[in-house]
Amino acid sequence: MNKHSFSPFAVERLLILLATLVALAACTGDKVVAPTYHDDLDGAIAALAGRIAEQLPGGLLSVGQGGKIVVVDAFFNEQSAEVTNSGVHVQKGLVERLAKANDKYEFAALSTRNLSKSSLAILGSVRLAGKAANNEKSYARIEAVVREVESGKVVANAVAFVASQQFDATPTRLYMDMPMFLAGDEHQQRLQVVAGNAAPVKDVVGVSARIAEATEQYNAGNFSESGRLFKEALDASGGKSLLALSGLYQSEFRGGDFLAAERTFGELVAAAIGSGKLSIKFLFEVNGTAFAATGDLTRQYPMWQRQIAKQIAEGSACLEVQGHASRSGTEAYNDKLSARRAEYVANSLRSIRPDLKGRLSSSGKGFSENIVGSGTDDAQDAIDRRVEFKILPCAQ
């Protein structure tokens, strides 16, 4: 027998293997395509839209004719859990470009109304780059996934990179006003959805749709309506969404209902401590340890401190206040400055509740635990300058 010939059994196995690989590629959105790099954000959006459009026909046919609208959510920051100006621009750009690329389906921003008519959702995230070495250009990574709302099946996905300087990481109004970085369990679940992993896609997208509507009202200054919608989102999440709870607090505070706002903030702190992650956006004076007197923060900070002290005191855990710094300046300087800021916060809480003296410690981490690490000292690496409360076992 010719040494290059194949037995019928071997050929049959090869055909089965090829068919299986093709089926898997269709189910996973063909993840082997290399990402593209772009010097401007619109170029990255065009690449994402093109890659998604290439994968959609088979996936769309598989979901039938029931859902004609494909909803697109705003892209969030993987590190800080915030939606930024450029994250919204990516959402709008995809809606516009995909509508031109596919005339059989309507593409629209995520909302409860649009979701009720949709079988597919486009969700995405952005990972900001750390500090580039040897003057190399740094890039932000943008990832998009298309998932069936009911089944969670991955229909398509795409990745593109854009030069970091072209990505506006300034948070939108809701996230700019947010008192905390909410990168806990709720955020991790959203990351799992975007990554294409097993996750309750329908539940996550349903809550996100309500939050998107509430956010639109908040950003427009309609705080009474945004408060109502954030309550609906909170109920839809079974009371678990810290993002909805934070939005409710912010709506109450901006709407002038300060008593309700303080109660809600206390609930938010208790829930964050319960989740094991409390990261507060305390803003300090440049190179100093005092809180910056910026905008209405002078009114919010005392209330934040009262509720943080109250919730810690009423609990049973011990906490370490950890100061963090961005990657600019020397390591020694940032270690000392972050330690002094953490001690300032700890002392302010002890002054409110003296019974915290044995349960509250402090430390400075400098830039050793940066999340972004760009050292740009702007909105991009704001989370690197956080004050974090780490839950510790109390000494016996």
Can you give me a brief rundown of this structure?
This protein has 396 residues and is α/β, with parallel strands linked by helices.
The level 1 CATH classification of the largest domain is Alpha Beta
End-to-end Cα distance, whole Å, is: 80 Å
Chain oligomer state? single chain
Instruction: List how many beta strands DSSP finds.
Output: 11
Main sheet makeup: 7 strands, mixed
CATH architecture of the largest domain: 3-Layer(aba) Sandwich
Overview of this protein structure:
This protein is α/β, with parallel strands linked by helices and 396 residues long. It folds into three domains: 29-171, Rossmann fold; 173-178 and 194-261, no CATH class; 276-396, 60s Ribosomal Protein L30, Chain: A (2-Layer Sandwich), CATH 3.30.1330. It is 46% helix and 16% strand. It is built from twelve helices and eleven strands. It has helices at residues 8-28, 41-62, 85-101, 112-116, 173-177, 185-194, 201-219, 223-236, 242-254, 258-275, 297-314, 331-352, and strands at 36-38, 69-72, 76-77, 106-109, 118-127, 139-148, 154-163, 278-280, 318-323, 360-364, 387-392. Strands 1, 2, 3, 4, 5, 6 and 7 form a seven-stranded mixed beta sheet that branches. Helix 12 (331-352) links the parallel strand 9 and strand 10 (360-364). The longest helix is centred in the N-terminal third of the chain and has 22 residues, at 41-62. Residues 1-31 and 59-64 have low confidence and may be disordered.
